[in-house]
Specification:
74 residues, alpha+beta, three-stranded antiparallel sheet, two-stranded antiparallel ribbon
Length: 74
């Protein structure tokens, strides 16, 4: 089982450490225990004009790369 993983929700994305996770945490914040790296996304309107939050593809890529790299180091 991998120790580091990508957690994305509500227009943000983070790399987190399973060994330091807070079990009952609903949100995702840069200063939470277990957050190694954090990126805020952007707000935009969807096809129906509603505001939604999303992350950029480069943010998703960086998070995936960092989690993969951290999981290689023991």
């Amino acid at each position: 089982m991998k120790r580091y993983y990508v957690d994305g929700r509500g227009g943000c994305i983070a790399v987190r450490d399973k060994e330091k996770d807070i079990e009952f945490e609903n949100g995702l914040h840069p200063d939470m225990d277990g957050v190694i790296a954090y990126w805020s996304g952007f707000s935009a309107k969807d096809s129906k004009g509603f505001v939604c939050w999303d992350v950029h593809p480069w943010q998703q890529q960086k998070a995936n790369e960092l989690a993969e790299l951290l999981n290689l180091v023991k």
